[in-house]
Amino acid sequence: MQLTLTSKDGSPVPAFTAGQYVRLSIPSLKDPAPGYFAIASGPDSRSSYEFYIKEAGPLSSYLCAMEPSTQLEVEGPMGKGFNLDNHKGMDIYLIGVGTGIAPLRSLWKHIICHRSDYGKVIIYAGFRSALHQMLTDELMELSNYDIEVSITLETGHDSWDGPIGYVQHALQADAPDSAHAVACLAGMSAMVDACTETLQQLGFDENNILLNY
Question: Which residue(s) pair with 35 in the sheet?
Fold first, then answer.
């Protein structure tokens, strides 16, 4: 579910770096407990924060059932995010699985606003199955901004002709050029560890493998 939050007084939301996250809590309630959610909107637009919420616990269930105009407490932004200021002119690889796509969406929206600052941009997105895919239409439209997209499904289907398995397998098969390139990873720790190992095998410098936390 997409959740959009605006300031109570209509002022711009606090500035943030792509990939950062906030702590959301319900005013005057201790249960459900607060939780952390990555901002999915681009940092160049501060009219609101956008999130993608997966119903997987008490707080996310509450957020998915909220009525419009419900108030939440927002703490942050926090985390280091993906700062590409020192990587201009380089190729950018965005790699994530499941809801890890949310902080990467913030980053690709930033890249779109500054597309000429970077070389080749490729997104490697992984999902459990076609039923678990997120942002399908938006990912398809990124070619309009000279951004390539590779989607990997853990479980394919009869009409699926893309990669099957895990994102690190797609990386291994494509063997992206590590020269003048930076990789931005987001998602579950097992995926991040596996992709980091694969990228290092492909010659990526550890300083050019970025995490948002």
Answer: 24
2-5/35-38 β-pairing: unpaired
Digit-coded pLDDT (tens) for 92-121: 999 998 888 999 999 999 999 999 999 999
> Which two structure tokens, joined as six digits, stand for 139?
């990912």
Low-confidence ranges of the chain (pLDDT < 50): none
Task: State the pLDDT at residue 13.
Answer: 96
User: 0.90 exceeded by the pTM?
Assistant: yes
User: Are 103 and 204 part of one and the same domain?
Assistant: yes
**Residue 21: closest CA among 47, 55, 53, 58:** 53
User: What phi-psi label fits residue 19: left (phi over 0), alpha (psi between -120 and 50 degrees) or beta?
Assistant: left
Q: Under 8 Å CB-to-CB from 90, ≥6 apart: which residues? A: 118, 119, 180, 181, 182, 208
Whether residues 49 and 120 fall in one domain? no
Q: Could you list the residue range(s) of the whole structural domain that residue 26 is in?
A: 2-78
Q: Is 118 helix (H, G, I), strand (E, B) or coil?
A: coil
